[in-house]
Backbone:
């Protein structure tokens, strides 16, 4: 059984001015297996974030099903951890307070919480920052914290909504590399939304390409690149270029901000 | 400095003129920073009184005001009036917070409660606090209840409006983040909504207290049995201008102390440490 299944998902908005019904998601179907990294890629405004928000339970859908381990889900829940583009850290909590939030909600005792937090902070490279507040961290470190906060909660599936889009190019490379290493170590199930083709191919086991609005699945590509992956070796791999070229063509030349970087 | 000076940062301060250095040191001192701005004010006041150009029946200099202060303290009137005023303020603000905080959050969080009460809120906010006094005196007489009611009334509205604004400004994403980390409604409220709206709630409390303080003085003038407001009005009747001046000064000093000793440290301890002030300034 797949960890996450999205079946015939449709979403329509009603325009408040004209009263018209506007289709946002035409029909989207795909699934993610346990321990699989799947990216959803598409042109800006194609509704990929809408798909993620529906899976997260933040917004309703018009038709179709979202199943986690075969069970239909409604509303947000800790089985689907979300890493936000804006980080969405609690500014009034320390790094430790942010990381242990989910475990506290589950009722995990303090000692265990802090042990788990220490492990995760070590994993994402934030050891020693436990007492800092989010505003004292750089953008890259904030997103590491956003990742740690979800990882420590061990959700069934991690939903990542363009998590590195607001981070400078240099740091982004490093974060992508680190995310790959963390993924290879822990094998969480990941649903990753991005508009960056290189990022999608580098990180993923499969890439779901969406069409423009109303979005439908244009193609699903199996990324057959060896793991562990490093940026240095992967970009040298001719298959990496084949995948990215193929997707660029598929998306109609690609976007300016979707180039190697 | 245009001369060729070798980089010697430790010696550089010695070249700054002595006066300016003294000024910098003095200005950095908290007492100077707090009281400094009042020095020219006091000087002008003193000068105006010293020239005798204003009839002494209408005007009192700093010296006379100080005299009537020491006299009133010695007679015990000042401490007792001050105590009365502060007690009324404490009652009013206490009940105001007790009523305004829960009510504010209910109106802020429940869309139907908001729709139901918003017109009422605006309507009753428009009736000035003092405008209630005539009917209050009919109901409760010249009593603590009347004064407390007026203060509660003035505290509750800015507080409630502050809470609504504060809750509205909590980022939706933080609520979503908490919910997808397993927080239920109650947890979201206490862990996200309350701390997230705190800056606006704090400024609502501040505004409410300020209004309450003014309402108190006005109520004391009208209800008039004791207190700083009563003292001022009573002194006017007796022609003691220096006591009127004194009352005004006491009001200013008390509010300043309340702000500096309670409200500002509270804001510093929470809002500023969390970086919320910086965030809000950046968003502006």
Residues:
């Amino acid at each position: 059984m797949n960890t996450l299944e999205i079946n015939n998902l449709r979403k329509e908005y009603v325009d408040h001015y004209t009263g018209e019904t506007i289709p946002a998601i035409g029909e989207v179907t795909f699934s993610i297996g346990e321990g699989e990294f799947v990216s959803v890629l598409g042109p800006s405004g194609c509704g990929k974030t809408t798909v993620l928000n529906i899976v997260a339970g933040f917004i309703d859908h018009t038709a179709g099903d979202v199943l986690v381990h075969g069970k239909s889900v409604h509303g947000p829940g800790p089985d689907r951890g979300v890493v936000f583009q804006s980080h969405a850290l609690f500014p009034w909590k320390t790094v430790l307070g942010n990381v242990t939030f989910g475990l506290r909600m589950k009722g995990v005792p303090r000692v265990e919480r802090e042990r788990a937090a220490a492990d995760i902070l070590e994993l994402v490279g934030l050891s020693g920052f436990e007492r800092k507040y989010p505003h004292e961290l750089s953008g890259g470190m904030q997103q590491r914290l956003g990742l740690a906060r979800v990882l420590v909660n061990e959700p069934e599936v991690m939903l990542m909504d363009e998590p590195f889009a607001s981070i400078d190019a240099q740091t982004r490379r490093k974060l992508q590399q680190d995310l790959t290493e963390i993924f290879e170590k822990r094998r969480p199930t990941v649903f990753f939304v991005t508009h960056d083709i290189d990022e999608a191919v580098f990180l993923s086991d499969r890439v779901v390409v969406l069409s423009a609005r109303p979005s439908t699945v244009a193609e699903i590509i199996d990324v057959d690149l060896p793991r562990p992956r490093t940026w240095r070796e992967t970009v040298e791999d001719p298959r990496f270029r084949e995948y990215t070229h193929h997707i660029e063509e598929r998306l109609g030349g690609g976007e300016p901000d979707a180039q190697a970087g | 400095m245009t001369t060729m000076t070798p980089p010697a940062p430790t010696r550089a301060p010695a070249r700054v003129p002595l006066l300016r250095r003294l000024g910098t040191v003095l200005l950095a001192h908290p007492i100077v920073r707090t009281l400094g701005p009042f020095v020219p004010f006091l000087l002008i006041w003193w000068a105006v009184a010293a020239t005798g150009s204003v009839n002494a029946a209408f005007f009192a200099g700093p010296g006379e005001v100080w005299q009537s202060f020491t006299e009133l303290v010695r007679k015990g009137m000042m401490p007792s009036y001050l105590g009365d005023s502060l007690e009324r303020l404490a009652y009013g603000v206490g009940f105001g917070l007790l009523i305004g905080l829960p009510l504010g959050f209910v109106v802020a969080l429940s869309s139907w409660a908001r729709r139901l009460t918003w017109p009422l809120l605006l309507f009753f906010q428009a009736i000035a606090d003092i405008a209630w006094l005539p009917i209050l005196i009919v109901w409760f007489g010249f009593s603590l209840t009347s004064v407390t009611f007026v203060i509660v009334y003035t505290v509750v509205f800015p507080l409630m409006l502050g809470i609504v604004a504060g809750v509205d400004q909590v980022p939706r994403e933080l609520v979503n983040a908490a919910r997808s980390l397993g927080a239920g409604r109650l947890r979201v409220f206490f862990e996200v909504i309350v701390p997230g709206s705190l800056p606006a709630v704090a400024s609502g409390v501040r505004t409410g207290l300020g209004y309450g303080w003014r309402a108190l003085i006005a109520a004391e003038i009208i209800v008039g049995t004791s207190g700083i407001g009563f003292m001022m009005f009573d002194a006017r009747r007796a022609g003691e201008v220096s006591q009127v001046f004194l009352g005004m000064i006491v009001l200013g000093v008390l509010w300043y102390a309340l702000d500096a000793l309670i409200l500002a440290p509270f804001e510093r301890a929470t809002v500023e440490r969390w970086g919320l002030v910086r965030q809000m300034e950046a968003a502006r």
